[in-house]
Amino acid sequence: MKIFRIELDNEFEADVINSLFEEEKIPHTVVSHHSSAYDGLFQMTMGWGHVEIPEEFQEKAEKLMQSYKESLPE
Global pTM? Predict the structure, then answer.
């Protein structure tokens, strides 16, 4: 099974996207780049984290992500 990633900016965004994907029954895994041993070093260099989605749900997931981003105040 091929997967693709969507980068996440922070924990709040991860929670929102997790809820949206669960509601739409999109299988996914949220991956944080945080490491207690390195005191967040990987988050500083790699970003907060990402969500992994099977390729067959890519279009639906990207549309949901775009709608979420557009709903944010500037």
Answer: 0.82
What stretches of the chain adopt beta strand conformation (E)? 3-8, 29-32, 49-54
Q: What is the tens place of the pLDDT at every residue in 22-64?
A: 999 999 999 987 766 666 666 666 778 999 999 999 999 999 9
Query: Side chain identity at 73, as an amino acid letter?
Result: P
- Of the candidates 54, 51, 59, 49, the residue with the CA atom closest to the CA atom of residue 3: 54
Sequence-distant (6+) residues with CB within 8 A of 49 are 7, 8, 14, 30, 31, 32, 33, 34, 43
- Coil/strand/helix, residue 3: strand
Domain ranges of the chain: 3-71
Q: How many CA atoms lie within 13 A of 4 on its CB side?
A: 10
The residue type at 15 = D
